[in-house]
Amino acid sequence: MVPEQRDARGERESPHRGLLGFLVLVSLVEGDAHGYEVMRRIERVTGGLWRPAPGSLYPVIDSLEKEGLIECMVKEVRGKARRVCRLTDDGWNMLLDLLERKIIAYISILEHMLKSLDEAISVLDGERAETIRSRAIKELKHVCDKYCNYR
Predict the structure, then answer these.
(1) 90-100 pLDDT, tens per residue?
(2) How many distinct structural domains can be found in the chain?
(3) How far apart are the C-alpha atoms of 76 and 67, rounded to whole Å?
(4) 18 shares a domain with 70
(5) Kind plus residue range of the DSSP H or E element containing 71
């Protein structure tokens, strides 16, 4: 049995709510999916930088299911029986809680990364750092245009 952990606010936190658990929940926002599809979605979400191994992914899926955050059932997909998972109401609520905390943290991290790029530009007079910074700002503007005026 894994000991109960508490987050910074002293609230109960599952040991399975690390990055991979979070990404599984995020991947299921797109709809029901079996493990291989979850892996592909995570790879896409991470910009192709990471595809979790089955040995890492399936225990997290099992844990999320035991916690009641996802529900898995066997369905036929392209002629094969697959274990297909979906978010439960508790899963949606947990995802919203995680998003609330992570978005603020990631914005802070991103701010420090951009500051570091500015420092690199000033120290190195670096064309490469400026290119990275320009691309990051372009991508941020694209994301904001897409989601900041949502609904």
Answers:
(1) 999 999 999 99
(2) 2
(3) 25
(4) yes
(5) strand 70-77
